[in-house]
Design brief:
Blueprint (H helix, E strand, L loop, with lengths): L3 E7 L4 H7 L13 H15 L5 E11 L3 E4 L3 E7 L8 E7 L2 H13 L4 E4 L8 H10 L7 E7 L1 H4 L2 H22 L2 E6 L26 H15 L3 H14 L8 H8 L8 E8 L2 E8 L1 H5 L4
Parallel strand pairs: 1-8, 2-7, 2-8, 3-6
Antiparallel strand pairs: 1-10, 4-5, 9-10
Helix pairs in contact: 3-6, 6-9, 7-8
Bound molecules: (3E)-3-iminooxepin-2(3H)-one (2X7) and fe (ii) ion.
(3E)-3-iminooxepin-2(3H)-one binds next to loops.
């Protein structure tokens, strides 16, 4: 049986959304906050889990690798992940199963695309908060194995365009590996949109009277991006992304969105925006591309 990408999701990872949800794995306690985004995640989760995925594949900007694109290569990773900027919000005990076969297949297909790929086999390797947050908010039970892809830092080291080009190759490699695996996969692009944020945290981090976007131009850029997604204009979106990265300091620079849209072969059907909201002023949207329903899961 041919494997399928059943959905692609823009799945941002502010650790605040985990903190606000008070899961038992996270040490700090909160009074809530950022409800619209968390409700959007709930809607996305219902939709995506109903499609019975075999695997979640996440690409995270906070596992940045200088040489090549890395995958996790052991069946299980356990430990404590702490956000280096927000250690008072995110101290998460994780115990996560990895789909090693698919991870290795993506690394191999990446090499066939001319990319450098590497496999992380250090059992003490600490998973980053970005991957954990996107995976927790998509599937809090953690009962579906994941594949974790690092973000190669070519966009920062060379240019936005070189970075995008690399991520497009990684997307094609991912799609081929999934097709050969026979599995039903959901792709999680772990990225915020605009990324201008505040510099002083309120005394109560979840005090929503302090939460808002900090620059009107950033909001306008975010809305333009979401409009293109909702209208199925993903090729145009890809063309505009390098400018968006510079003008809105957008986190998509790290490549997750480009990787995912490439794996979906740049969809021309509309995506569904489940939520948009700010976290410390950054723009975040939960967006679903129902790939199987719109294309049969083929590229
Ligand atoms: O990593 C992040 C992020 N991307 C957005 C908002 C807040 C914190 O961390
Ligand atoms: Fe981030």
């Amino acid at each position: 049986m041919t494997g399928k990408i059943i959905a692609g999701v823009l799945a941002p990872h502010p650790p605040h959304l985990v903190y606000a949800s008070n899961p038992p794995q996270n040490e700090p306690r909160s009074e809530g906050g950022w409800d619209m985004l968390r409700w959007g995640y709930e809607r996305m989760r219902k939709s995506v889990l109903a499609k019975k995925p075999d695997v979640l594949i996440v690409h995270s900007p906070h596992w940045m690798t200088v040489v090549g694109h890395h995958v996790l290569g052991l069946p299980k990773f356990q430990g404590l992940s702490v956000d280096p900027i927000f250690p008072h919000l995110f101290r998460f005990q994780y115990d996560i199963n990895i789909d090693v076969d698919l991870s290795l297949a993506i690394a191999e297909e990446g090499r066939a695309e001319g990319l450098i790929t590497k496999v992380m086999k250090n059992p003490d390797f600490r998973l980053d908060y970005g991957a954990i947050t996107s995976c927790y908010l998509t599937n809090p039970a953690f009962d579906i194995p994941i594949v974790c892809l690092s973000s190669n830092n070519s966009p920062y080291y060379f240019s936005n365009e070189v970075g995008q080009h690399q991520m497009e190759k990684l997307g094609r490699a991912t799609a081929r590996a999934i097709a050969k695996s026979g599995k039903r996969a959901v792709l999680l692009a772990s990225n915020s949109l605009s990324h201008r944020h505040f510099t002083n945290e309120p005394e109560i981090p979840e005090d929503m009277s302090h939460e808002h976007i900090y620059h009107h131009g950033q909001y306008l850029w975010d809305m333009e991006m979401l409009k293109m997604m909702r209208e199925g204009r993903s090729r145009e979106l890809i063309d505009v992304l390098p400018e968006f990265m510079d003008m809105a300091l957008a986190e998509v620079k790290a490549g997750a969105l480009t990787w995912m849209l490439s794996a979906l072969d740049f969809p021309s059907y509309p995506a569904e925006v489940h939520a948009y909201g700010s976290v410390i002023g950054t723009g975040n949207a939960v967006v679903e591309w129902a790939h199987e329903a719109n294309s049969g899961g083929a590229r």
